[in-house]
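Journal club prep, notes for RB
We'll compare a predicted complex against what the paper describes. Inputs for the succinic acid case:
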Amino acid sequence: MEAWLEHLVLFFRDQPLDVDTFRSFAELFGRPVEYPFVPGLAGHPDVIEIAKYPGETVNFGGIWHSDTTYLERPPKATTLIAREIPPVGGDTLFANQYAAFEALSAGMQQLLLPLRAVNTSSQADVSHTREDRRLDAAEEGYDAPCETYEATHPVVRTHPETGRPSLFVNVAHTARFEGMTEAESRPLLAYLFAHQVRPEFTCRFRWQVGSIALWDNRCVQHNPVNDYHGHQRVMHRITLSGDRPR
Ligand code: SIN
């Protein structure tokens, strides 16, 4: 746990865990929760499959984001295990949002500290990345919710365990600052979206079958690189219950 809080993302190689054991691993860190838009595996509603098939060009979640920040209580953590990987590509990038906040000028930090931002599940760039999996789910009879989820969170979040401030907006889900229009919010949000994923805040993980990553959604963003068209990549994902950002 200490290593996770210090390093934000943990990686484990060569862990060919079955679904039950992967779930037990996740439970060491928290309580698994269901993802609203894609059904879980049979018998495991809180474990979802994230796949891109050879005929597809869009990858699930293929944009910088922190998971489901449109919920009142976004997950504190996500863990992924690689089941099938492409011969090349399909890495995942991670960006440290403590570092992103700390690198801002004192003036910008002061400006951001009192602000809150509205996060929504309906932004076009990210909705598009879920569409193939939603269609698969519909074919299997799963009735995905049509509603839009929306939640307002602090722009700078204090981590409940480390007490450290981190930037808590993301290009996939953050639409505007509370009390402002989207047009008014856009210039500063655009600056923050570019700033928060500067290469010096990131690391890149190259998957192998049986690799596991576990990251802290409260202070990390991730982005799966979509550079393996024509090949198959299949992962299993579990998200862990989180608290209300403060
Ligand atoms: C996600 O959870 O957003 C997908 C990450 C990945 O496929 O690497």
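Talking point for the session: The CA atoms of residues 19 and 47 lie 8 Å apart.
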